[in-house]
Specification:
By secondary structure, this protein is of the alpha/beta class. It is 36% helix and 25% strand. The chain has 5 helices and 7 strands.
């Protein structure tokens, strides 16, 4: 069963996701990020803006010629990819196909609308029988 984590209170959601992806790739993990196209475009730009020694190789999951060479795949819909066990959801809804991954991370900002959408997803996962892990990023920072 997929391990589901909610990372709450990301004051700068994209910066947090960049750090999360950098940490995962430094541990030789491949990750799949799902979200709306505009958010993924912002993430793409942000990932190109990290320090050169912290570069995170990434591409759109549709770029077949780059998928095997990229540690992070970006797409508006999840799809199983050999060797990719962790997915990160930046979208407002429960991502279809999440159960194909061993781990799903829901990143939630401190914005009221984002928090409300996360509560809905939390209830949906719970109703499906998943046990959920909550990580409050405010507590981690202290």
């Amino acid at each position: 069963m997929t391990q589901i984590e909610f990372h709450f209170n990301a004051t700068d959601k994209l910066a947090y996701v960049c750090r999360l992806l950098r940490k995962g790739t430094s541990q030789n993990q491949r990750l799949f990020v799902v979200g709306q196209a505009d958010i993924l475009k912002q993430l793409d730009v942000a990932l190109w803006s990290v320090a050169p020694h912290d570069f995170v190789s990434h591409c759109q999951a549709s770029e077949a010629h780059l998928v095997t060479h990229s540690a992070v795949l970006l797409a508006t819909q999840l799809e199983p990819v050999p060797g990719v066990q962790t997915a990160v959801n930046l979208g407002p809804e429960l991502p279809e196909g999440f159960e194909c991954f061993g781990r799903l991370i829901e990143v939630v900002s401190d914005e009221p609308a984002d928090r409300l959408q996360a509560r809905v997803r939390w209830k949906q996962y719970s109703a499906l029988g998943y046990s959920l892990e909550r990580r409050d990023l405010n507590l981690k920072a202290n």
